[in-house]
Write a structure and sequence with these properties.
The structure holds two protein chains of two kinds. In chain A, 68% of the residues lie in helices and 0% in strands. Chain A is mainly α. In chain A, α2 packs antiparallel against α8. Chain A is elongated and about 60 Å long. The two termini of chain A are 16 Å apart. By secondary structure, chain B is mostly helical. Chain B has one domain. Helix content of chain B is 76%, strand content 0%. The radius of gyration of chain B is 18 Å and the shape is flat. Chain B starts with a helix and ends with a helix. The chains are: A mainly alpha, B mainly alpha. Chains A and B meet through α4 and α8 of A and α2 and α3 of B.
Chain lengths: 176, 74
């Protein structure tokens, strides 16, 4: 009974895996003992996201004008939040504290003119490439989050050796 | 200063380079997908190359198909 309790305590906690995977790409896999995979995921998703921001500049992550891209970008966790905060700081400086209604055509033109003047306006084709890179990075991390969550629910930890039939063996199955 | 400018101001891209920039995106998708799915990590480079080839060939086939539709559709 005591042994069983000890075993349960060492089992991965799904919500910890979920939170880690959402916050830092690959961290959920590292938590599950899949360290090499976690590092590969972190490096790939981080490089893809920041390549997008490198191409598109600070306005790549734009919560007001590109909402759907923004939702995808924020799935990169800490990277998305950092890029969003940078964009907000620049946006607030440009409008100098005034609240612009970006559904209004005049306010849109005012902001566009200020972005043009600072050389920050995102134009085609850089806008498409930048947002595709950073958005796809977020969606790939979403896939990693689901994977980490499912693995933790199934109790899979560590690199999974394949069984004789080629299928993956879970940690519990290996322990048995 | 250059590094700051790199992540601050957009890079000027030509429309010709846009399609080539799909390759790194395909590479990243293939790498992440296979890292999650594969059983043994030592098989990762080969499997990833296959997936990337599938994606690129699929995109080219789609392009050709759409071009044919656009050109020859009555």
């Amino acid at each position: 009974m005591g042994k069983q309790k000890k075993k349960d305590r060492s089992a991965p906690l799904p919500y910890v895996a979920l939170v880690l995977a959402c916050a830092i790409p690959g961290a959920g896999h590292v938590y599950l003992g899949r360290i090499k995979r976690g590092i590969i995921l972190f490096v790939t998703i981080t490089a893809l996201f920041w390549s997008g921001v490198g191409i598109g500049g600070v306005m790549t992550v734009d919560s007001q004008r590109e909402r759907w891209w923004f939702v995808a970008q924020v799935f990169t966790g800490v990277h998305g939040v950092i890029a969003w905060q940078r964009q907000r700081r620049v946006h607030d400086r440009l409008v100098s504290g005034k609240r612009l209604d970006l559904r209004d055509r005049y306010d849109q033109d005012v902001l566009d003119a200020k972005l043009q003047a600072e050389g920050l306006a995102l134009v085609a084709p850089a806008d498409t490439v930048a947002r595709a890179y950073s958005g796809v990075a977020g969606l790939l991390n979403l896939m990693c989050v689901f994977d980490a969550l499912m693995l933790s629910i199934m109790g899979v930890t560590g690199e999974s050796p394949r069984g004789k039939d080629g299928s993956e063996q879970s940690g519990k199955a290996r322990d048995a | 200063m250059t590094a700051w400018s790199l992540f601050y101001k957009p890079i000027l891209l030509s429309f010709d380079s846009e399609l080539w920039l799909l390759l790194p995106l395909c590479f990243a998708v293939a790498l992440v997908y296979k890292t999650i799915r594969i059983g043994e990590l030592r098989r990762l480079p080969r499997e990833m190359a296959f997936v990337m080839a599938y994606i690129v060939v699929g995109l080219i086939a789609l392009c050709v198909g759409l071009w044919l539709v656009q050109e020859y559709w009555p």
